[in-house]
Amino acid sequence: MSAVADSVPVVVVGAGQAGLSVSWYLGRAGIEHLVVESSTPMHAWADTRWDNFTLVTPNWHCRLPGYAYAGGDPDGFMTRDEVVDWLAGWLGTFDPPLRTHTRVSRLRRTAGGFELTLESVTGVESLRCAQVVVATGGYPLPILPPFAAALDPAVAQIHSEQYRNPQRLPDGAVLVVGTGQSGAQIAEDLHLAGRSVHLAVGSAPRVARFYRGRDCMTWLADMGVYDTPAQQFPGGKAAQEKTNHYVTGRDGGRDVDLRRFAVEGMALYGTLIGGKDTELEFAPTLSAALDRADAVYNSICSDIDRYIIRAGIDAPPPYRYEPVWAPDTEPTRLDLAAANVRSIVWAIGYRPDYRWIEASAFDGGGRPMQTRGITEVPGLSFVGLPWMHTWGSGRFLGIDRDAKYVADSVVAALSTATVPDILPENGVRL
Ligand SMILES: Cc1cc2nc3c(=O)[nH]c(=O)nc-3n(C[C@H](O)[C@H](O)[C@H](O)COP(=O)(O)OP(=O)(O)OC[C@H]3O[C@@H](n4cnc5c(N)ncnc54)[C@H](O)[C@@H]3O)c2cc1C
Fold first, then answer.
1. Which long-range contacts (CB under 8 A, 24 or more apart) does 76-80 make?
2. Best exposed site among 44, 45, 224, 282 by fewest CB in 10 Å?
3. Ligand 1, residues 395, 400, 402, 406: which to mutate, most atoms within 8 A of Cβ?
4. pLDDT for 64-78, tens place per residue?
5. Could you give the residue ranges of the DSSP H alpha helices within 96-215?
């Protein structure tokens, strides 16, 4: 590795919408900084979403520093390519100091700040700084279960972030595992394309797309649900651990009703708990999972009803979801070969990956311990984490507020700090 090559007051790691939003505020404050990105700016939208992807959040939620959705369909849902274009439009409004195709492979504390190891095709370098903002996304490491490796190698396996379209999967039936937002929408994408789909239903709740004349997410925003600080959120930590509600923005937006899919021929199961070769085993949880998801759907409708009464709003009448199907039995086994399942899409989420950061800033699960992004390690902050401040954090709706808060705290820290005195390579780690 080359000797310490350079220093800059602030490094932002990651040029997604979160890191670039912090950069926008730092630039406006006249703070010298560098945004280091392992790929290209905001590439996750183009590279890790499927072809028929649409936003789940309405377009009016899309706002970034100095820039908001200004198209003709604020209550609609941009497609993947429209999101990519919209983000490119934002990037054209300012000039962030970017270093692309460069991965930060190590971040360690030094006496006066931090030393980062940067890796790119041109080699390995070091960079010193006083402040680091980690903006590497809330969805870094795709999860696969340990037993995935024991399954029949003839069955293709991909994670949801690799899924593009039905044609790219081998012919035959497909098993989708997981019913968070990605799993439910990918199962629908395959189902609409006429593929035979088996779906392992998890514990995700669901929400109506529209209710009493408006998008549910617009009602919830008016009710202040996305602005409630995490500490005051009803249900506390448990609510924050839950998978996001499944619903879709496809074709102008609609509910995702797994029971309706079952009526139309999709095979539903409970949680997938194990497998070997071609044999899979499921927990008998399907009925309960469907009931729970519908109960959440209806309880959100009730919350909206109460708000409508409180606020004296004239709205169309209330209704409740009535199940259109229920399983006769709990299927607990599937033989992939017998059912001609030739591919599996794992949509069971992501886990954090901060192994490259050498600092005592993480809990037992490897998640940053932070308050509104600020950690107790001086100079180390995060942005773009789900629930970092509110339910809106980690999404378009909340990123501007969160980024401004983090950038303001970086600016304040720099204005009170002494000039960093970085220890040499073999210096004492704090
Ligand atoms: C499937 C899916 C659907 C979503 N749908 C919506 C939606 O409808 N509405 C909504 O508001 N939000 C949605 N989100 C949430 C959120 O808006 C996106 O995840 C968004 O991409 C988050 O932006 P980010 O900047 O925090 O992270 P990312 O976009 O993931 O950016 C992080 C960047 O850091 C870079 N990076 C990572 N590690 C390093 C390193 N060590 N060194 C250098 N660079 C590094 C990555 O290459 C990446 O470019 C969705 C998320 C997913 C996964």
1. 76/249, 76/252, 76/253, 77/249, 77/250, 77/252, 77/253, 78/54, 79/52, 79/53, 79/54, 80/45, 80/46, 80/49, 80/50, 80/51, 80/52, 80/53, 80/54
2. 224
3. 395
4. 999 999 999 999 999
5. 181-192
